[in-house]
UniProtKB/TrEMBL annotation, chain A:
PROSITE patterns: ABC_TRANSPORTER_2 (PS50893). This is ABC transporter ATP-binding protein. InterPro entries: AAA+_ATPase, ABC_transporter-like_ATP-bd, ABC_transporter_ATP-binding, P-loop_NTPase. It is a peripheral membrane protein. Gene3D superfamilies: P-loop containing nucleotide triphosphate hydrolases (3.40.50.300).
UniProtKB/TrEMBL annotation, chain B:
Its main location: membrane. It is found in: Membrane. The keyword Transmembrane helix applies. This is ABC transporter permease. Residues 81-228 form the ABC-2 type transporter transmembrane domain. PANTHER family: DOXORUBICIN RESISTANCE ABC TRANSPORTER PERMEASE PROTEIN DRRC-RELATED, TRANSPORT PERMEASE PROTEIN. InterPro entries: ABC-2_transporter, ABC2_TM. Keywords: Membrane, Transmembrane, Transmembrane helix. It is a multi-pass membrane protein. The chain crosses the membrane at residues 38-65, 71-94, 115-139, 151-172, 179-200, 241-260.
């Protein structure tokens, strides 16, 4: 029997001539955290809006907890808890009352909702603010405490599917850690979590699987390790070019003198993915470029998910054609 | 870690608890009231000032105001206040909630969406009711008119007028883009204050405009409330009741459709 709590198959959604989702398919299983990565406008929020019944897909199917979310959106919504990217409307409420109300709406008894609010406040270290009222114009509570309250409201009761849209915005580093622990704990308790974000570094540490959306399409899926690269031993050579650099593809006017598996340009940064055997040649080359003033700086380190993500989502103009002598094209 | 989170693995296929409508309604009511409630004292003050503005200000416009005109002005003022809440404050609040994401947030909750409208209507009804008292009080202070209250009619008329104005205001806000909705509310204020036979007799309008007001809800609301406040002088009509009810139903239908539809 399938343990999918979310299954999206071939979902397409258009706004006029713009195709926001183009045949998107993905699944979230019980007990897993799945990251949905993509730039602004990649179609992440459009997809989430269709899962919770705010938008209707033009084509494709969505099943939430086994329920057909396109045909029965009201029933499907009971299987999903959403923390949207916008702040939750808690003006006039304290975090305690907001979390309790969210619990009541999700079927907790008054007593259980009260206990859950206390417990979550401790878990997220917001007990100090639990009885402070949120006021209009962002007064009363800081953006971070509001965001944590919204997160607590989403996870207050066990729900088969939890969707978190950029949950760590405005939150300080120590409470981010607590939030990620709480996310992991919910997954371990049986929920499936869809984490919508464009923060690749954070996603890499928390998710079991990743889906990369680019211009409305699924550009890649798989575990972070798989998306990082097949070998797991590759290195990245990062070159930082000066503002007036003429040709970032061939900074010394010649071919890159070693094999490059993948090349991505992001602004004035160029990221070459290379094998470990090329490390010495790459460092020698980069050091020489820096000495001649062709690059401002360089760094060599293990390949990160960000490199793979950037290569998957880089706009075509920004992607440097793979230099001569490369083993792979610019896109994996 | 929360006890709730560790209370055992979930069965993903198990249906989550179906929350009762009354629990949902009461919770939403508390939530909505907390959001709007902070403005309640301010709203009452604004209503009192608006009442004073109409009753005293119109007194300046109409020189040598006679008893009959004063009675008309005084018994029409509560309607102006109620319609201002429904046609202006409600759409502005709903437009704001559409812009800041609140509208989508609430619609994403596991609730029967029409209850969102029910909670909003209830809260605005509670906020609107003091307007009648405020309007009558200001009128009494200025003109000292004698009222003959027919409580059943007054209660039904006030409830229906407030519901109608709130539902129509809500419908405007969910049907038009936020900026256009806010502009429409400004136009409606002028329409209610200057072009509607609320504080003056309908006979003062051209015939064609009187006919228009026969099917619009404004005069119907005003005349019903007037019949409740001064039952010795004014009579309630079933036709007004029907017009108000139809507009009320239309406002609710348009609002509910906007809440449940998926574009």
């Amino acid at each position: 029997m399938s343990d999918d709590v979310l299954r999206v198959d071939g979902v397409t959604r258009r706004f006029g001539s713009v195709v926001a989702n183009d045949g998107v398919s993905l699944r979230v299983r019980s007990g897993t955290v799945v990251g949905l990565l993509g730039h602004n406008g990649a179609g992440k929020t459009t997809l989430v809006s269709q899962v919770v019944g705010l938008l209707r897909p033009d084509d494709g199917s969505i099943r939430v907890g086994g329920i057909d979310a396109v045909a029965e959106p009201a029933t499907a919504r009971r299987y999903v808890a959403l923390q949207p990217q916008s702040q939750a409307p808690i003006d006039g409420l304290t975090p305690r009352s907001a979390i309790e109300m969210a619990g009541r709406l999700r079927g907790l008894s008054t007593r259980a909702a009260r206990a859950a609010a206390e417990s979550l406040a401790e878990e997220l270290d917001i007990t100090e603010w639990i009885d402070r009222r949120a006021l209009p114009e962002n007064r009363g509570l800081s953006g971070g405490i509001r965001r944590l309250t919204a997160f607590a409201m989403a996870i207050v009761a066990p729900t088969p599917l939890v969707i978190l849209d950029e949950p760590t915005n405005d939150i300080d580093a120590s409470r981010r850690r607590l939030l990620w622990q709480a996310v992991r704990a919910r997954a371990d308790a049986g929920s499936g979590v869809l984490l919508v974000t464009h923060n690749v570094a954070e996603a890499e540490r928390i998710v079991d699987d990743l889906i990369v959306l680019n211009h409305g399409r699924v550009a890649a899926t798989g575990s972070p390790a798989r998306l990082r690269g097949a070998t797991g031993t590759d290195l990245r050579l990062e070159l930082q070019f000066p503002p007036d650099a003429a040709d970032v593809g061939a900074p010394d006017g010649a071919r890159v003198p070693f094999a490059v598996r993948r090349t991505v340009r992001v602004g004035r940064r160029v990221l070459h993915t290379i094998g470990t055997e090329e490390a010495a040649a790459a460092v020698t080359w980069a050091a020489a470029l820096r000495e001649r003033g062709r690059v401002d700086g360089y760094a060599v380190g293990p390949v990160t998910l960000e490199d793979a993500y950037l290569s998957l989502t880089a706009v075509e103009d920004d992607t440097v054609p793979a230099p001569a002598g490369t083993e792979a094209a610019a896109h994996v | 870690m929360s006890d709730l989170a560790t209370a055992g693995r979930l069965e993903p296929r198990r249906s989550p608890i179906q929350v009762g409508l009354s629990t949902t309604y009461v919770t939403l009511l508390r939530w909505t009231f907390a959001g709007i409630g902070a403005m309640l004292p301010l709203i009452v003050v604004v209503q009192a000032m608006l009442a004073a503005g109409i009753i005293i200000g119109f007194g300046f416009i109409i020189p040598n105001i006679d008893a009959a005109t004063a009675l008309y002005l005084s018994t029409g003022t509560p309607t102006v206040l109620l319609l201002t809440i429904g046609f202006v404050m409600v759409p502005q609040g709903v437009s704001r909630s559409r812009t800041d994401g609140t509208f989508s947030y609430m619609r994403g909750l596991p609730i029967a969406r029409p209850l969102l409208l029910a909670a909003d209507l209830t809260v605005w009804l509670i906020i609107g009711l003091p307007s009648v008292a405020v309007g009558v009080m200001v009128a009494q202070l200025r003109y000292g008119i004698a009222l003959s209250v027919d409580w059943p009619i007054l209660v039904v008329a006030t409830l229906l007028a407030t519901l109608m104005a709130t539902a129509v205001g809500y419908a405007i806000a969910v049907s038009l883009p936020p900026l256009l909705a806010q502009l429409s509310t400004q136009v409606l204020v002028f329409f209610v204050l200057l072009f509607s036979p609320i504080t003056f007799r309908v006979e003062q309008l051209p015939d064609w405009f009187q006919t228009v007001h026969d099917v619009l809800p404004v005069r119907a609301a005003a005349d019903l409330i007037r019949a409740g406040l001064a039952s010795d002088v004014f009579e309630a009509s079933l036709r007004d009741l029907a017009v108000l009810t139809v507009w009320c139903a239309a406002g609710v239908a348009v609002s509910v459709r906007a809440l449940v539809r998926r574009p």
